[in-house]
Design a protein that fits this description.
mainly alpha, 3% strand, 231 residues, Serine Threonine Protein Phosphatase 5, Tetratricopeptide repeat, two-stranded antiparallel ribbon
């Protein structure tokens, strides 16, 4: 008799727990939708976190990581989905890993993720990221391969954003590639600064307001003048 009472007690409690869990899930799904309508990022993160606890899913996890990354919370994004190279990851998960690792100054790990994306769907924007990261890692030959691809495939309406100034700005993607080409030229032949400057001038001819290219040209010009000064 006691066993029957215990079993009935457990069954009742489990039923109550299941009902409570279901109600909570419905609540947070409604809360999530409302936060999306309001554009409340913190609210969206809160709702998705609760939903992932109540009913874990890869899709929700990837979405949560993307929202973190899009809000420049890159460490939180990577804590959500990890940093490992996983070939079966969704495109969204790989994109989050790539962007967040780059933002956290992990070029080697970021490169692995961008390479996965490029294998799946190669395009000029991915070529820029791959070229930039290879330059950071001193892999100028690989970087140049991606620059050549990018220049050949960059369309006139394609832009790339830069953030080294207080006010972000965009330049034509082809100009951005020419800037990288100028850096590679200098890295490969430091005695021929004029050739690197000439390539930077090509980038500035496309967009005279390309601040980063202008800064790079100033730096190379200063080095050239310093090298030409008699000691």
């Amino acid at each position: 008799m006691k066993k029957i009472i215990v079993l009935l007690f457990l069954a009742t409690n489990l039923s109550g727990f299941a009902q409570t869990k279901s109600e909570l899930q419905k609540h947070y799904e409604a809360f999530y939708n409302e936060m999306r309508l309001q554009g409340d990022v913190d609210g969206i993160i809160n709702a998705l976190t609760h939903l992932n606890v109540l009913s874990p899913s890869k899709e929700r996890r990837d979405t949560l990581a993307y929202i973190y990354a899009n809000d420049n919370q890159h460490l939180q994004a990577l804590n959500t989905i990890g940093i490992e190279k996983v070939d079966t990851d969704t495109d969204l998960a790989v994109q989050v890993k790539a962007i967040s690792l780059k933002a956290l100054n992990q070029p080697k790990r970021a490169l692995e993720q961008f390479e996965i994306l490029n294998t799946r769907t190669p395009n000029a924007y991915l070529a820029y990221e791959l070229a930039d990261l290879n330059i950071q890692l001193g892999e100028n030959t690989s970087a140049m391969t991606h620059v050549d691809y990018g220049i050949a495939n960059a369309k006139d309406d394609m832009k790339y954003a830069f953030y080294e100034r207080q006010q972000p700005y965009e330049v034509p993607l082809k100009a951005a590639f020419l800037h990288l080409k100028g850096l590679i030229k200098y890295n490969n032949d430091k005695d021929n600064i004029d050739a690197a400057i000439a390539i930077l001038d090509e980038a500035l001819a496309i967009d005279p307001n390309f601040n980063l290219a202008s800064l790079s040209k100033q730096a190379l010009t200063s080095r050239k003048e310093g090298a030409d000064t008699p000691k």
